[in-house]
Design goal:
Blueprint lengths: L1 H24 L5 H13 L3 E3 L4 E3 L5 E4 L2 E4 L8 E5 L1 E6 L8 E10 L2 E6 L8 H10 L2 H7 L15 E4 L2 E12 L4 E13 L6 E12 L2 E13 L6 E13 L3 E13 L5 E11 L2 E13 L5 E14 L8 E12 L4 E11 L2 E10 L5 E12 H5 L3 H13 L2 H4 L2 H5 L14 E13 L2 E13 L2 E11 L2 E10 L6 E12 H9 L4 E14 L3 H7 L1 E14 L3 H12 L12 E14 L2 E10 L3 E10 L4 E10 L18 E9 L3 E5 L1 H24 L6 H15 L1
Helix pairs in contact: 12-13
């Protein structure tokens, strides 16, 4: 028992002896000049230590410094570059007797770092780099002065120092840039590294709060670190990062990143999630990827990047919107080049795949090629047929007072903000198997376009639609507001009626159509487009019909009324067939005109001229019809006496309820002239030989015509 007590007492006595020796033989204040001297040599700045240095023995042997500050160079607003309320240092005891200071851990409590950039671009930390440059010249200076008598060595110069680690609590980082006017603060910063040793796993924890201008954020995280001697390589594992952010328009409650491991040149499993609100858009997203970074820190790769997201908000075409993505991403830091391969991207019913390349310069250069099997813009915007019916019924049920407020709503129109186009350099192509917009259905859509410093160009557009095809080009110039635009399109072999039914719910026209469009304008508001649109539209229809109007029946009815007769048993379709129809429409700031409408069939020849106002949605158009065949084929009895006469029909009023009026005065004059000419021909046959004098003959003809007129 006595031997056991003796064995236990020996190390206790030894420890007490060491502690007593430290207190009696080693004065920690002798390190002050050493610390100040080393700080001056390493930084070129003055270090001020207020108060004495005292020993501490719990929880480990070491000493503490009072308030300490590293002074700023002259010319900066803050007096200090670095300031700390208290510095605690743990040291190994036995090396002290050999004048060797092995620091196990430095604890900085209440540390404050002030980084500042003046208006002339000079930074307070420039003094540190300048001092390092001058330090590299010291060996040469020392050689030249080696033959000179060295000054007497100070007590501090006999000591050597080594440092193992640092722990920071309650720290502040203040960053001011007077050139940009920005000011960022990180406060309540803490960083701890437990049981740090080379070639062993150590755990690190950090936390911080911050604000910059009107933005506030928090961040905290943990990781395990394995650092090799000589800092030749390192590895991380069990990495977790959690942050939050808010400003006037955004509130990110949670942003998390997790990495099971992180090693260079290896695939590391990454998980992430974000919840909050951004620009009045609620978002909840999560995902994962395989992250790899090369040792040279020149290339970052994220393979099998998965995104599972939900967005909600009034600004979305559909809310909520579910977005799923699977892609591969690589970023070459040496070339500032991003490559993005999109295996799949879905947003509700929309689906895309393709490739994107971005080269980061002053104006990023973007090149992409996308494909979609099916895009239904109407479904995305909630503009299906059922919605239209509901909307129309609601608008029809509104009283007149509500409709009168429509012009006031038009005053709220604003030109879209296209300023972002000025900072883009984009070249792209898109292929869509099926496409629907404004209820028009297209197939095999291919489009190529570019955006370069405010000018967007649709260099080519090709599509199949309604048994025909369309080709188009367009340009949008957004360098000035309002934006200007031009467009050309060539529609060939399109079935007109199903197109009109789908787009305008109108079946008034049938046939196979070719349409050439060449328009230009300024402004992108609905009313601005109508008021500024100019150009031409050429139409060429074949084998069609105009529904809602039976020209032959209209002629019969009006002619029967004129003769005081009635048409009995006439129940014919309101339809006028034609074998061909051509016209050139001229658009000029709200009004469309034509003077060369021509339509023909074996029975009729039709010419048309007039105008329509597509702002007021009114029409004033005259159709002149010549009967060249039997009207019987147009669903009624023939009227031989009107054959070879030109009959004008005026169409006027609103688009929704047009009025048709046959201008019969011209018909009567033509018929009278026809009868006069026929009578004169007969008179010439009977009396031609007897009336040989031409003047007499002309006088007789004029007399007869005057009687008919």
């Amino acid at each position: 028992m006595k031997k056991l007590a003796l064995i236990i007492a020996i190390p206790v006595v030894a420890i007490l002896a060491v502690v007593l020796a430290l207190v009696l033989l080693v004065n920690p204040n002798q390190f002050k000049p050493l610390i100040v001297e080393q700080a001056k040599q390493q930084t070129g700045l003055d270090l001020v230590i207020d108060g004495d240095i005292s020993w501490k023995f719990f929880p480990s042997v070491g000493f503490t410094l009072g308030q300490t500050a590293l002074k700023n160079p002259q010319g900066f607003t803050q007096p200090n570059l670095f300031k700390v309320e208290q510095v605690g240092v743990d040291v190994s005891v036995m090396p002290l007797f050999s004048q060797q200071l092995d620091i196990g851990e430095i604890t900085l409590d209440g540390a404050e770092f002030y980084l500042e950039t003046r208006k002339d671009g000079v930074k307070n930390i420039d003094a540190l780099s300048q001092n390092q440059a001058s330090a590299q010249q010291e060996p040469a200076n020392q050689e030249s002065s080696s033959n000179e008598t060295a000054p007497a060595a100070s007590p501090a110069s006999d000591w050597s120092i080594s440092l193992a680690g640092v722990a920071i609590t309650n720290a502040l980082l203040d960053i001011q840039d007077q050139q940009t006017g920005s000011h960022t603060k990180l406060y309540d910063v803490s960083l701890t590294l437990s049981e740090f040793a080379f070639d062993q796993w150590s755990k690190a924890d950090f936390a911080a709060k911050g604000e910059t201008n009107q933005q506030k954020f928090t961040a905290q995280g943990t990781a395990e670190l394995n650092l090799a001697k000589g800092f030749s390589q390192y590895a991380l594992r069990n990495i977790a990062f959690d942050a939050s952010y808010n400003d006037a328009n955004n509130q990110i409650d949670e942003a998390k990143i997790e990495l099971a491991t992180f090693e260079f040149d290896k695939a590391n499993a990454l998980k992430y999630s974000v919840k909050g609100t951004a620009a009045e858009l609620g978002l909840n997203l999560k995902g994962n990827a395989q992250l790899s970074v090369d040792k040279a820190l020149s290339k970052v790769v994220m393979n099998q990047w998965v995104l599972d997201a939900n967005f909600e908000g009034a600004s979305l075409p559909q809310s909520p919107m579910k977005v799923d993505m699977l892609s591969d991403l690589s970023f070459d830091l040496t070339k500032n080049h991003l490559s993005f391969i999109l295996e799949k991207l879905t947003a509700n019913a929309l689906q895309f795949d393709g490739k994107l390349d971005v080269t980061l310069t002053d104006i990023p250069k973007i090149v992409f090629n996308l494909h979609s099997p099916d895009i239904d813009v109407d479904a995305l915007l909630g503009q299906g047929s059922s919605e239209k019916t509901v909307a129309n019924s609601e608008s029809d049920s509104k009283p007149a007072a509500d409709k009168s407020s429509a012009p006031a709503a038009a005053t709220t129109e604003q030109e879209p903000d296209l300023s972002a186009l000025k900072s883009l350099d984009v070249t792209g192509a898109i292929t869509i198997d099926k496409f629907k917009a404004a209820n028009a259905k297209m197939q095999n859509v291919t489009a190529k376009f570019s955006v370069n410093r405010g000018v967007a160009k649709l260099t080519s557009f090709n599509s199949n639609l309604y048994d025909g095809s369309i080709k188009a080009t367009a340009t949008l110039d957004a360098r000035k507001s309002p934006a200007s635009y031009s467009a050309k399109s060539f529609i060939t072999g399109v079935k007109v009626q199903p197109l009109l039914i789908d787009v305008a719910d109108n079946d008034k026209l049938e046939g196979t159509g070719n349409i050439d469009v060449d328009v230009r304008g300024r402004s992108l508001t609905p009313s601005g487009i109508k008021q500024n649109l100019v150009g031409t539209v050429k139409i060429n229809f074949a084998d069609g019909a105009v529904n809602g109007l039976n020209v032959a029946q209209l002629i019969r009815e009006n002619y029967a009324k004129f003769k005081g007769q009635s048409l009995e048993g006439q129940n014919v379709a309101k339809k006028t067939d034609f074998s061909a129809m051509t016209a050139t429409l001229t658009l000029n700031k709200g009004v469309v005109k034509t003077d060369n409408l021509h339509a023909q069939s074996p029975l009729l020849r039709v010419r048309g001229a007039g105008s329509a106002n597509y702002i007021k949605e009114t029409v004033d158009f005259t159709i002149s019809t010549s009967i060249v065949g039997s009207l019987e084929g147009q669903g009624g009895k023939d009227i031989d006496e009107l054959k070879d006469l030109t009959i004008p029909v005026n169409v006027s009023g609103s688009w929704s309820k047009p009025k048709f009026k046959l201008v019969f005065d011209d018909v009567l004059k033509q018929k009278a002239e026809k009868e006069i000419n026929r009578g004169l021909e007969k008179l010439d046959e009977k009396l031609g030989d007897k009336i040989k004098d031409e003047k007499t003959k002309e006088a007789v003809n004029s007399l007869i015509k005057g009687l008919f007129n």
